[in-house]
Structures are given as C-alpha cells and as structure tokens.
Q: What sequence folds into this?
C-alpha cells in the first residue's frame, strides 16, 4: 500500500461477523449464521436460568428435611427447571444453533431455503420465552413440565396458562426450523452431493426435523385443549363430561417421547463427525449410522406408551409398547458399535471435542441401557417415578445431548468465531464435566433403585449420603459449564485466529474461510468424492 | 444461467429451484397441519366410539342446511382458487386477481354463515361451559360433543381467516402484475393451503353434521 492512510481492515476479508456491526444488522438478519448466534445467546440464557433452578433443587436436597423451601416452592422449582431445560434449551440447542449454522454450509448452499422463516422462528422462540418468563416472574408454575391433567386443567393455582401459551408458541419455532432443514436438504444440495455423500450430521438433522414437523403439532393441540379447559371449563379431558385425563397423556407423550430424540439425534450427528475426524479414519458403517437415525425417528413415534405403564392403560397396550421400546435399542446400539469400530486402529487425537465424544459414548451407553430397565413392564412398576428415571433421562439428555452439544460447539468454534479456544482449558473442563456429571447422577440410580420417589422435597434420612454426593457433583458440574462459557467468550477477542480448517477435517464447511463470508462460498462447491476420506498420514497438530 | 429475475431470492440458483423449494415447503407444512388437526380427530374418534348416542343426539342440533350450504360454498371456492392458479401460470394477472377475489368472497361467505351458526348455538345454550343447557339422558356427553364441534370448526375457521388474509395479499400482488409464466409459485403455494383447509372441512362436515341423520 503506497497510500499513507492504509485501511485498518485491509487484510481482513469481509466475513459474516464483520460485514456490519449495527444492532439492526443482527436483529433483522436473514443470514443463517447470524441467526444461529442469536439462538446461541438466547438458549444460553435459558440454560443458565434452568441451571439456577437446578441449583435450588440440589441445595434443598442436601438435607432430608424440607428446610430451604416450602413443598409448593419446590414443585415450582422442578417444574421450571424442566420447562426451561427441555423446551427452551435442549430441544433447540443443537438444531437451532449448530444445525442452523452448519446445514447450509454442509450441503454447499448459500443459506437455508427460507431465510425469513428462519428469522421468524427465532422471534417466535423469543416471544414464547417471554410468556414463560412472565409465568416465572409472576409466581411460577407447579404442574411438572408434563402438564398432566386434571391437575393442570382444574386444580393447579399457578400460572399454567402463561406457561402453556409460551410452550405452544415455542413449538412453532421448532416446526419452522425442521421445515426449513427438510426443504434445504432436499432441494439445495451442491452439485455432486448425493444423499449418501451427505455428512452424518445432516442425516441426523433430517431425522430430527421429521420428528419436529410430525410430533410438535400434536403436543400443540393438546396444550390448546388444556388451555381451553382451564379458561372456559370446556374440557375434553374432564371426567365430569365423560372425558379421559389419560387421553392427555397419550397426546402429550406422542410428541414428548419423540422429543427426547429431537434432543439426542442431533448430538449423535455431532458425535459421528467428531469420532471420524479425530480417529483420522473413515467412519465405519456410514449407511448404518445414517439409516439408524431415521430408524430412531420412526420407531420413536411408536413407543410413547412406555411412559404410561402405571397410569391405567391396558396391560396389552403396555406389553406392545414395551416390546416396541426395546426395538429403539437396536438402532441406538448400531450407532455406538459403529463409533467404536471407527476408533479401532484409528490414530486417535485427544482434543477437547474428542473428549466430549468419548464422554458422550460412555454416558449415552449407560443412559440407553438403563432405559431398557424402564422399558421392561415388571421392573418399571418398581422404578416408575423414582430417581432411577431421573438419573436415566439425565444420562441421555445431559450426559448425551449436552456433551454432544458442547463437543460440537468446540469443534466448530473456529468456524463460528474465527478464533481458536484454549485447548488446555478445553480438555480440563471436559474432564471436570465428566466427573461432575457422574457424581451428580450415578447416585440417583441407586437412590431410585432403593425407592426414593422423584419430585419430593423431603426424603428419609438413610438417603442423605447419596443425596449429598449428588449435590456435590452438581456443584462440580456447574463449574464445568462455567469454564467453557468464560474461555469461549474470552477467545472471541483474544483467541488465536483460526485457519480455514484447523482440524484437517473433511466436509464442505471446512472449505470456506473461518468465519465464512455472508454467502458462505466464493462459488458453489462441487462434490466429487465420498464423505470422510481421512487418512492416518495427515498430521494433526493441536496446541 | 437465466437472467437474474427480480423475484429470485439470493439463496437459490434459479427460479425452478425456488419454485420447487417453496412448493415442497408448503407440502411439509401441510403435513404438520394434518398432525395438528390429527390430534383433534384422534380425540373425536375416542369419544365418539365411547359415546355414540350422545354424539348422534348432539349432531341433530346442528343445521344441515347451513352446514350443507357451507360445504357447497367451500367446494366452489376451491374451483375459483384452482382457476386463479391457472390464470397465474398463464401470466394473466387480471384474471388471477378476479379469481382470487371470487375465492375471497366465497371464503368470507363461509365465515359469515359460520358466525350465524355459532350465534344459533349461543341462543340455544349449546355452548359448552357453565351456560350449557341440555335436556336428556346424555347431557354431559352432548356437551363433550359440542366441545369437539367448537374446537374443530373453530380451528378450521381460524385457518380460513388466515387464508383470507393471505388472499388479500395475493390479490394486491396480482394487481401489481407480479406474476408471469416463469414466476407464479406463490399463488400455487397459496392454492395448496386453501385446498387443504377445504379438505379439512370435507371431513368435518360428515363427522359432525351427518352422524345423527341415519334414518
């Protein structure tokens, strides 16, 4: 540059982050990458809030007596913990953040098929969140996140309507995200990117989207009916009119069981990417992993009755649901075995994302196997509504889904932020999380097996040791979540600049710059080979 | 590559891909809608099989004449909608606008009749809730039947209102000469939605109005 006034940003090419700094450019953006970051900020907020409620629960449970809060308060705490974590964090976590960011990049498109609908989905999420926050501020809700009738429709004196409206509205954001992904994956793949060349992350999101568009509307109408019954006393779940409260459970679990797969499937997609990249080896059984995602989505719709073994459904229905629930174990096991086989004779690099992947595989396996205990009719009668169930689904939803989410956040952080996170801190916090998680939730398996019921603020004295362990673990777990939050934010300003492909990873998202330009690619990529052509020879240096 | 059409969004390569994606998107959305109404239909199926007599009795209190008229109106509106889509495909914006106005008129007529029907139910104390009055052995179950009547037809009417709002937008677009033989996708997508809402009614009408008139 011969001119004296060199442009300050002359060497930094325009990317999606520095193209505009105004607040309007964020709030009115149609760029899927920016919308992903809007989601990242909002789900982190709800995660922190849901975590705060969990802290209150674990504090109360340190002692057998109910000395910190009233029973009603405790009911509100676990309800709001569940509502925040499930509806506002886990369900949108991977799809709305990582999926939003990566689906167009991975299929080689400039954006999702419907960018405006994508932005709309975030606003719907925020509006649903505001309704629910109103319910929290106004005094909370105590029905449990499941809103079971007739308690929710008739007896509860808390803010059921506001919460239900919030969850109802939120559902549409989930539907619209799923719709956008399905259309994008069908219609906007780059030339040469055939279905069986798609990354497994995309397959997992496709399966997730199917659940989002098929399940969510059913829970939406169920919630509308609860709201109508509460507001106008016109109840189709009201026994006084010949209605059946258990019908609500059917409609609710028809969505909410598959919703568990909305939470776990995208994380499984993340793990597939991580395992093959850091084993430096082509994924084992690509077709089986892809197919098992779709199989889980389909089978997931046929097993809802296993939540209702003791709620008076027919014993024959119970038996059928039990058998069908066992079937879900097959595609889940296929995934675990294929990941393990990928590791076999791989050149494994123990990066932070890989540690999360290992954590996922271990915790998900425990969570999945204990699910079989609960799918068995006879044992479920004993274990139903005990801490065994609580431990089981936390192993899946926290140990599985959040491990996958954090692994993915670290893996794609260089792409998202254009910066490298501190690898040493990353590994350290992954280990802290793993230890904290197991200390929190493994004792709960034992507590549940011994008969401690869930959703009570008091318990017999002989359970105290295990409960103290659990609470101690929760505080370690909390620290494990705080550390990444701190160093990721730190790295946005002070981290080393990331190259386009710091991991030597395959996939179209690594072929563009970090962070990518607004239109993702300079020119539309053409795909000419299978996915995951990794080789041991390619050196991988990680600081 | 075709020349850059003003209606081509930046994420698409050409208008064909854009048309393909938006049509497919609407089909996916309609699947969602089917599941949404499906929850209500499932509940209806459960209770009607549990209380067949009460549902038949309640059905006798619905006006076959008004319901039948509305059915004919909606089928006619599907025809005008289809003709509007065809006009848009041919690039005839004037005809498109007029057919869509006809569709809007028929849809509004449907809603007006629906309001009269609801008013009738109010006068006869057939609105579920504290004001519900019904003499007979199955009074409470008849109330349940009316819960379904209002939930299902109400949800359907809500979709009609949304459809009417969308029609106004498309009429204005057609009057601004937006459509041409290579850009008519949005009208077609609107048509898909309208036909879907009509088909829901085709199921609602017999399930609610005709089950009492067996003889």
A:
């Amino acid at each position: 540059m011969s001119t004296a006034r060199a442009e300050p940003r002359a060497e930094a090419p325009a990317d999606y982050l520095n193209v505009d700094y105004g607040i309007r450019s964020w709030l009115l953006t149609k760029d899927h990458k920016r919308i992903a970051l809007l989601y990242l900020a909002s789900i982190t907020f709800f995660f922190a809030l849901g975590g705060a409620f969990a802290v209150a629960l674990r504090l109360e449970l340190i002692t057998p007596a109910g000395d910190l809060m009233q029973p009603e308060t405790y009911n509100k705490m676990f309800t709001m913990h569940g509502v925040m974590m499930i509806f506002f964090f886990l369900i949108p976590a991977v799809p709305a953040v990582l999926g939003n960011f990566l689906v167009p990049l991975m299929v080689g498109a400039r954006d999702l098929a419907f960018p405006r609908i994508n932005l709309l989905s975030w606003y719907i999420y925020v509006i649903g969140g505001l309704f629910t926050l109103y319910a929290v501020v106004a005094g909370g809700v105590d029905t449990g996140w499941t809103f079971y009738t007739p308690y929710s429709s008739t007896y509860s004196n808390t803010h059921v309507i506001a919460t239900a409206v919030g969850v109802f509205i939120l559902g549409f954001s989930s539907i619209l995200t799923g719709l956008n992904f399905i259309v994008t994956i069908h219609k906007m793949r780059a030339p040469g990117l055939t279905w069986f060349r798609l990354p497994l992350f995309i397959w997992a999101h496709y399966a997730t989207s199917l659940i989002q568009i098929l399940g969510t509307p059913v829970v939406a109408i169920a919630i509308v009916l609860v709201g109508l019954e509460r507001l106008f006393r016109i109840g189709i779940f009201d026994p006084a009119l010949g209605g059946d409260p258990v019908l609500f459970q059917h409609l609710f679990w028809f969505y909410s069981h598959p919703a568990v797969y909305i939470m776990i499937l995208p994380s499984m997609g993340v793990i597939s990417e991580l395992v093959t990249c850091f084993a430096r080896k082509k994924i084992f059984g690509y077709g089986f992993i892809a197919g098992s995602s779709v199989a889980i989505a389909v089978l997931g719709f046929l097993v809802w009755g296993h939540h209702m073994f003791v709620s008076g459904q027919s014993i024959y229905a119970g038996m059928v649901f039990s058998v069908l629930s066992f079937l879900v174990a097959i595609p889940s096991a296929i995934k675990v075995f294929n990941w393990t086989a990928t590791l076999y004779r791989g050149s494994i690099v123990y990066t932070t994302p890989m540690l999360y992947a290992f954590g996922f595989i271990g915790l998900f396996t425990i969570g999945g196997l204990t699910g079989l205990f609960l799918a068995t009719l006879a044992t479920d009668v004993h274990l139903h509504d005990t801490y065994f169930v609580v431990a089981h689904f936390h192993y899946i939803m926290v140990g599985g889904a959040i491990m996958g989410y954090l692994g993915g956040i670290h893996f794609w952080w260089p792409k998202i932020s254009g910066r490298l996170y501190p690898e040493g801190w990353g590994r350290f916090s992954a280990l802290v999380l793993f230890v904290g998680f197991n200390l929190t939730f493994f004792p709960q398996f034992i507590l549940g097996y011994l008969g401690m019921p869930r959703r009570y603020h008091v318990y017999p004295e002989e359970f105290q040791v295990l409960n103290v362990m659990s609470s101690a673990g929760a505080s370690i777990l909390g620290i494990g979540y705080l550390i990444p939050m701190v160093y990721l934010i730190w790295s946005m300003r002070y981290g080393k600049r990331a190259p386009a492909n710091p991991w030597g990873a395959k996939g179209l998202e690594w072929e563009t710059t970090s962070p990518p330009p607004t239109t993702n690619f300079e020119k539309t990529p053409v795909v000419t080979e299978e996915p995951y052509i990794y080789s041991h020879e390619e050196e991988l240096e990680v600081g | 590559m075709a020349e850059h059409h003003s209606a081509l969004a930046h994420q698409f390569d050409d208008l064909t891909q854009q048309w393909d994606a938006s049509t497919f998107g609407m089909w996916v959305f309609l699947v969602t809608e089917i599941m949404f109404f499906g929850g209500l239909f499932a509940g209806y199926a459960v209770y009607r099989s549990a209380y067949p007599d009460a549902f038949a009795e309640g059905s006798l209190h619905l006006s076959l004449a008004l319901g039948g008229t509305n059915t004919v109106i909606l089928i006619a509106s599907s025809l005008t909608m289809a003709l509007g889509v065809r006009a848009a495909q041919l690039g005839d914006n004037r005809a498109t606008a007029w057919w869509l106005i006809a569709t809007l008129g028929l849809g509004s007529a449907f809603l007006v009749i629906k309001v009269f029907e609801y008013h009738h139910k109010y006068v006869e104390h057939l609105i579920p809730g504290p004001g519900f009055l019904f003499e007979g052995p199955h009074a409470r179950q008849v109330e349940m039947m009316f819960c379904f009547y209002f939930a299902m037809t109400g949800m359907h009417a809500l979709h009609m209102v949304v459809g009417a709002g969308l029609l106004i937008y498309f009429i204005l677009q057609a009057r601004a000469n937006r459509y041409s033989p290579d850009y008519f996708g949005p009208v077609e997508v609107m048509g898909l939605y309208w036909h879907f809402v009509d088909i829901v009614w085709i199921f609602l009408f017999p399930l609610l109005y005709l089950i009492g008139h067996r003889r």
Notes: Confidence is low (pLDDT under 50) at residues 1-10 of chain A. Residues 2 and 10 of chain A are 13 Å apart (CA to CA). The longest helix of chain A spans residues 71-107. Chain A touches chain B through 43 residues (CB under 8 Å).
